[in-house]
Amino acid sequence: EFMEKYGIPTGSAVTFTDFDEATRYLRQLDDIPVVKARGLAAGKGVILPVTMAEAAIVIRQMLEEDRFGDAGPTVLVEERMRGPEVSVLAFCDGKNLAVMPAAQDHKRLFDRDQGPNTGGMGAFAPSPQATPELLDQVRSQVLEPALAGMTAEGTPYVGVLYAGIMVTEAGIKVLEFNCRFGDPETQAILPLLNSDLIDIFEACIDGTLDEDAIAWHERSAMTVVMASGGYPGEYAVGVEITGIEKAEAHRCLVFQAGTNFKEKRLLTDGGRVLAVTGQGRDLGHAARAAYTGVNQIRFNSAHYLKDIAATWR
């Protein structure tokens, strides 16, 4: 509704709270839609059905079977957009914005973009997909209108604004906004920052943000998520993790997410357990660094993608 009001390009969508109304709408569509739970669902509330029948099943699960809990009483049936995705984040002080290096993430569970959607299995930055021309479009058509719209609503936005963009044949379209850093994009973007992050935060708060004062390293970063076997479905916890120190010795950054430290042992305690980030002068070198780190780490049934950024390296 916000994007339609302020002319921000996005896919057409209709919301439903009634299953019969939603299925009648499905029968009018020529293409299989995307189905989204309205509420927060830990990154797993967006379903890409393969058939119309599957779309109807997902809608029933959300509206009538309570499979998505509080996230599911309202569903969004949205146009399925096609094309590469890019994540563009910006620091905002309510009036001004400073765009970060664009990132790309991998949402599907398996290599070659296969399997169910997840909260993110890895990311890399800067994205070669995000040319200067494309970033100019995102700034003028998405970020600046969003910032102006928030001000017009009486709620000027201060913080990190994340725009998930799909580059379609019809041009850029917004998949989603997040009012935060993205995961796992942050693990690939922030290592490239050459300015003091606290100074940037204070400038956002004070309304003195100056994009030209923010410096970035001219290199690439890539992060690989190591997940528990079975994620995003059921998975075991309490599995011992070893080798993080070895990965760090290879100059990787290892971010812990689904972990627990118990009786002097590091254990798995979630679906997405670790994010291992490597850096290099280009994506090829960043990928080699990240996977070198991943190969030092062990826990039973660890699952990770082996082709992150493969198209670009």
How would you describe this protein?
With 313 residues, the chain is an alpha+beta fold. The chain is built from 8 helices and 17 strands. The protein has helices at 2-5, 19-28, 52-63, 132-152, 185-189, 197-206, 244-249, 283-294; strands at residues 13-16, 34-37, 46-47, 75-78, 85-93, 97-99, 104-105, 108-110, 114-117, 122-125, 158-168, 171-178, 220-227, 253-256, 259-262, 265-268, 272-280. The chain has a 5-stranded antiparallel sheet with strand order 7-10-13-17-14. A 4-stranded antiparallel sheet has the order 1-4-2-3, covered by helices on one side. Strand 8 (108-110) and strand 9 (114-117) form a beta hairpin. Helix 2 packs antiparallel against helix 3 (52-63). The two termini are 38 Å apart.
Averaging pLDDT over every residue, what do you get? 94
Strand content: 25-35%
Shape: globular
The span between the termini is: 38 Å
Our Rg estimate from Cα atoms comes to 20 Å
Please report the number of helical segments. Answer: 8
Stretches with pLDDT under 50, minimum 5 residues: none
Query: Which strand order does the major sheet show?
Result: 7-10-13-17-14
SS class? alpha+beta
Number of DSSP strands?
17
Largest sheet: 5 strands, antiparallel
Helix content: 25-40%
- Element string (H = helix, E = strand): HEHEEHEEEEEEEHEEHHEHEEEEH
